[in-house]
Design brief:
about 375 residues, TIM Barrel, eight-stranded parallel β-barrel, 18 helices, binds flavin mononucleotide
Length: about 375
């Protein structure tokens, strides 16, 4: 049954209209540099993440595993991760822990990508119901299965709620995450699956703290929609069409309160979006659904997509005069009014709002002084 669900996710995500909302990357603009004072060849897009060198800050997003088709998708993506020197998440490994005969569909990742950055994956509701002992065993087994360099635990309350056989069990999750952090000898990533992470949640996560937060914001693939299609109740999904924190805003919210690595995902659709995410405060970016669609077409389609992404990312570095990814983080960035209104209402202190707050401060104190002096007379 769980295998059937994995294949349905692949089929629906690759053939139906499952992208809703707006990740808001179009509302963000980087400032063109007419005098970059370097050649295009001087661009160095490499970064180091979790002790692995990446050719550019890109990780293939968490997708699948556990069935014949999923195994083929994982093998193709892993081969590309190895060839390009990029990272790769696998999909939730619960299926392989419950049905060991399916573990091969994850193992193909370590076979095809022996030196790439590999990230294991389990779901929060499932780990929340395990005894501490079983939890540690599960996580260690998931790591060994793909020789993972890091472990991701996904938070997916909306998906579980809309999933016909869902498990919306979120009590006790924070304690289990703390346990994983203590006993598992790998960096811990906490990720969403497409509805975003708020600054309040990032503050709660600070009590763990994880090594990375993957915001997986709203505006790309909608699991509310995928599960509603599976359940034949699309009208339920329509009501919650705009539910979630758009990716751009989630990056800003999380970066305002959290000091660790930030991974941007959810509706990132080209290398320019990825570069904007990094200029806003992320350290790396991922893409899921487009990788799945390409992997189903075959290896050449995946190569083409990654080559395109890498060129777009490097082009943006050149056009902002960013020799290294660290420079891109410092490049100026502006945003449109809806983005700014959200950030100001939420009191988010990030790169986009610092100037505004600095400019408002003297005006506000002048006004206060004026009111104060007037009332004195
Ligand atoms: C078919 C499919 C299966 C997915 N399975 C998982 C999963 O098992 N674990 C997980 O953490 N995220 C999973 N995701 C969520 C993605 O990792 C990502 O957060 C989300 O799709 C948003 O990114 P996108 O807009 O680039 O697709 C899945 C996404 C898709 C499309």
């Amino acid at each position: 049954m769980i295998g059937g669900r994995k294949d349905e996710h692949i089929r629906i995500a690759s053939s139906s209209d499952v992208e809703v909302g707006d990740s808001l990357f179009d509302g963000v603009q980087l400032i063109h540099n007419a005098l970059p004072e370097m050649d295009f060849n001087d661009v160095d897009s490499t970064i180091e993440l979790f002790n692995k060198r990446l050719s550019f800050p890109f990780i293939i997003g968490a997708l699948t595993g556990g069935t014949e088709t999923a195994g083929r998708v994982n093998a193709v993506l892993a081969k590309a991760a190895e060839e390009f020197g990029i990272g790769m998440y696998v999909g939730s490994q619960r299926i392989a822990l419950m049905k060991p005969e399916t573990a091969w569909s994850f193992r193909v990742v370590k076979d095809n990508a022996p030196s790439a950055l590999k990230i294991a994956n389990l779901g929060a509701p499932q780990v929340s119901r395990l005894s501490d002992r079983d939890l540690v065993d599960w996580v260690n087994e998931a790591v060994d299965m793909i020789n993972a360099d890091a472990v991701a635990i996904h938070l997916n309350p909306a998906q579980e709620l809309f999933q016909p056989e869902g498990e919306p069990w979120f009590s006790g999750v924070l304690g289990k995450l703390k346990l994983i952090r203590r006993v598992v000898n790998r960096p811990l990533i906490i990720k969403e699956v497409g509805n975003g992470v708020s600054m309040e949640v990032a503050r709660m996560l600070n009590s763990i703290p994880p090594d990375a937060i993957d915001v997986a914001g709203h505006g790309g693939t909608s699991f509310i929609r995928i599960e509603a299609i599976r359940g034949g109740e699309l009208s339920k999904a329509d009501v919650f069409r705009d539910w979630g924190i758009p990716t751009v805003l989630s990056i800003c919210e999380v970066s305002s309160v959290y000091d660790g690595v930030i991974i941007a995902s959810g509706g990132v659709r080209n290398g320019l979006d990825g570069a904007k995410a990094i200029a806003l405060g992320a350290d790396a970016f991922t893409m899921s659904r487009p990788m799945l669609v390409s992997a189903l077409k075959g290896y050449e389609a995946v190569r083409e997509l990654i080559n395109k992404l890498m060129w777009e990312f490097k082009a943006t570095m050149f056009l902002t005069g960013s020799r290294r990814v660290e420079d891109l983080k410092k490049t100026p960035v502006v945003a449109n009014l809806p983005i700014l209104l959200w950030l100001i209402q939420r009191g988010v202190k990030c790169k986009l709002t610092t100037n505004i707050y600095n400019q408002i401060k003297p005006i506000a104190s002048m006004l206060i002084n004026k009111v104060f002096n007037t009332t004195e007379h």
